[in-house]
Amino acid sequence: xxxxxxxxxxxxxxxxxxxxxxxxxxxxxxxxxxxxxxxxxxxxxxxxxxxxxxxxxxxxxxxxxxxxxxxxxxxxxxxxxxxxxxxxxxxxxxxxxxxxxxxxxxxxxxxxxxxxxxxxxxxxxxxxxxxxxxxxxxxxxxxxxxxxxxxxxxxxxxxxxxxxxxxxxxxxxxxxxxxxxxxxxxxxxxxxxxxxxxxxxxxxxxxxxxxxxxxxxxxxxxx
Length: 223
Description:
The protein is mostly helical. The chain has nine helices and five strands; from the N terminus they run αααβββαββααααα.
């Protein structure tokens, strides 16, 4: 069989990434900042729980990422104050839920370390909780899940529409941009592979082509 073609990833410049982020609001803006600053997929960002953020060590834990794998990635120091504010918002909403006899966070089958009693703990509450309650997997108890992936994707698309960026970008472009910025700064590709959670380094190597294409310093003969 003919080998599958590998297309170059669409990547934001740093200024483009900030332009899109600054057009977003509230929790969606912080989600985009985490995608760009930590290399998260959209589903990984919205699925973060309070316990996954380590402000002291400047890192966050991605649980049950693609392929069911856990990994640790870096956390931007500049986001600490925003995350502390988000913690407080989650705490207030969680307290209100507990006062109503609720307070359970949604627990999927892969979250085997969280039992029914533990689902009421603050640390397992979603960092970006949904505004609306839903039912657990057994359709019995009311729980609070997280904001939807589609809501983030839609907000980013709207921000792109009102920007001056003509690239065919999406919310996932923040993750590509994260990897490309690290390569441009001289980070070892094996480190980037670990931060992104790629099983094979060949998957990560596509960003070397993107990085070289984005930062060509050779002058054209026509110039």
